[in-house]
Each structure stands twice: as structure tokens, then as C-alpha cells.
Write a structure and sequence with these properties.
Radius of gyration: 21 Å
Order of helices and strands: HHHHHHHHHHHH
Number of helices: 12
Oligomer: single chain
Number of domains: 1
Largest sheet: none
Distance between the termini: 46 Å
Shape: globular
Number of strands: 0
Length: 296
């Protein structure tokens, strides 16, 4: 398959950069508003986490790295891991929902709050945020886009390539929502099943990465004919991509599981105090809004 250059990549990269910049500005305005009202609002560390997550999305999609996607499977895997595993967790750690509500102009904020309180939307949120649904969405997205036929479709078509990247990010956000629980005052997931959830999530990654590492042939024909300016063969590139997925997913999920295990072993009084402190900052500070905002 010949190398395909997407002529509108620069245009898409420009608009993505603009969009992410606007998101960052609204988020920063919201965190400043929250911090002016409550001293225990979104911390600088959490704000930095969110902004770094936005940067990783830009780096995966709009930076020069994206141009190498059809040259090296390893680059494709880096982008996939950034969009599905690392960036979503960093975004949720930044507690973005409250920040966005308070970063919008007052009329828009009131509309967003009304939408978040809308019962059908809350019911849909509860359903889509179940552990089973989130796991299946992430695993299904991972497996589907690495089936050779769909993989080749994404490489041939700019539209499908964009859908692929968007689905990686969306499924990653779904997957990490019950793990990070960025709205703990509302979410009711017990913590101990999350450890099993993370363990089971490694299985499709292990199967795919193991197949790429130990397969004795190049799985994706795209990389047979890609213009090579790198001192590596397509098979070595494939093995490197599989090993990267294997190690990165294992480390990230192990870190997340360790943090959850420490929280489970912490005294209940400490966890209750954290929840109460979060609940204080969960009250909107826009004028005329007196009730806590509920999403799920």
C-alpha cells in the first residue's frame, strides 16, 4: 500500500490547536474562579495534570509526530497510548467538569448546569459509566482498530483516520472515568472492583501486544511499502510497537492499581474527610446557583 499524505493535515492541526487552546483558557478561568471562592478548590497540581493531558492530545494528533504514523507502527502505537491510556487519565485528574462550568460566561454556565441536571442525560450517564460498559468500550475499540482490515481503512482514509483517533480518546475517557472518579461526591462506584477492572483491562492489551511481539510476519501491509528512512525493518518495528504497548499499559495500570489499593487500606475517616472537602468545592460559585451540580 503506498504512502498516503493527507493534504489537509496542516489545516486540521491548526484548528485542533485553536480548539485545545480555547479549552485550556476556559479551564484556567474556571479554576481561578473556584480558587477565589474556596481555598481547597482545584489545586495547581491537578490543573497542571489537565493541561499536560491537553498537550499530549495535541502532541499525538497535531504535532510533527503524526506525520510519521504511516512510516512506523511504533509511532502509531505511541499515539494510541497517548490518546487512550495517558491523556484521558490526566484530564480526569484535573477535575475538569466544575472548572468548565465556572469558566463559561454566566448564561452559558447556567445552561450547562441545567443540561447536567437533565434527568435523561443523568440516566444515560449512569448507564454508560458502568464498569462493564466502560471496559467493553475500551477493549472493543482497541481490538477493532487493530484488525488489519480496519487498520488499513484508517490508513487509507483521512476521515476514518480521524474517527479512529477520536474513538481512542473517547473510549479512554470512558475507561478512566470510574477509575479516577473526578466527581466523587456524586459517583457511587465501590473501589475494590476497580482493581479487578484494571487487571482485566490488561488482558486484551496483553494478547494484542504479545501477538505483535512474537508474530514472525508483518501483520499490517501498510508498513511493507512505507518509505523507510529508519534503520529498522518492518518486523522489528512491529515487535518494538508490541513491546511498547505491553510495558506502558502494564506500568500505567500497575500505578493506578497501587494508588487505589493504598486508598482502600487508608482509614475510613481519612477517606470521608477527603470526600467532605471535595464536597465543599463542588458547589458552583456563579451567582444565582445554590445547589450542587450532579452529573451521575
Amino acid at each position: 500500500m503506498p504512502h498516503v499524505h493527507h493534504p489537509s493535515h496542516d489545516s486540521c492541526a491548526f484548528w485542533l490547536t485553536v480548539g485545545l487552546s480555547v479549552v485550556a483558557l476556559v479551564y484556567l478561568r474556571g479554576t481561578a474562579c473556584l480558587r477565589s471562592a474556596h481555598s481547597n478548590a482545584v489545586s495547581a497540581c491537578r490543573a497542571g495534570s489537565f493541561l499536560f493531558g491537553l498537550f499530549l492530545i495535541w502532541f499525538a494528533v497535531a504535532s510533527p509526530l503524526a506525520r510519521l504514523d504511516q512510516e512506523l507502527l511504533t509511532v502509531h502505537m505511541v499515539r494510541h497510548l497517548l490518546l487512550m491510556t495517558i491523556a484521558p487519565s490526566l484530564l480526569w485528574l484535573g477535575e475538569p467538569i466544575l472548572a468548565f462550568v465556572h469558566g463559561l460566561p454566566a448564561p452559558a454556565a447556567q445552561g450547562a448546569i441545567s443540561l447536567l441536571r437533565w434527568y435523561p442525560l443523568r440516566r444515560l450517564g449512569r448507564t454508560s459509566a458502568s464498569l462493564t460498559f466502560c471496559w467493553l468500550a475500551a477493549a472493543g475499540t482497541l481490538v477493532a482498530w487493530h484488525v488489519p482490515a480496519l487498520f488499513s481503512l484508517g490508513m487509507r482514509s483521512e476521515m476514518w483516520h480521524g474517527i479512529e483517533q477520536a474513538s481512542f480518546l473517547a473510549s479512554g475517557l470512558l475507561f478512566w472515568w470510574p477509575v479516577v472518579q473526578p466527581w466523587p461526591g456524586v459517583a457511587n462506584w465501590p473501589e475494590w472492583p476497580i482493581l479487578l477492572y484494571l487487571l482485566l483491562a490488561t488482558l486484551p492489551c496483553d494478547v494484542l501486544s504479545g501477538f505483535l511481539v512474537f508474530c514472525d510476519r508483518v501483520v499490517y501491509e501498510t508498513y511493507f511499502s512505507a518509505a523507510r528512512s529508519f534503520l529498522t525493518s518492518p518486523l522489528e518495528d512491529q515487535q518494538c510497537a508490541g513491546a511498547l504497548m505491553w510495558s506502558c499499559v502494564t506500568i500505567v495500570y500497575l500505578v493506578a492499581g497501587t494508588v487505589l489499593a493504598v486508598r482502600l487500606l487508608a482509614p475510613k475517616s481519612s477517606r470521608k474527610r477527603d470526600s467532605v472537602q471535595w464536597g465543599v468545592q463542588a458547589r458552583p460559585v456563579h451567582a444565582g446557583v445554590a445547589k450542587p451540580v450532579e452529573v451521575l
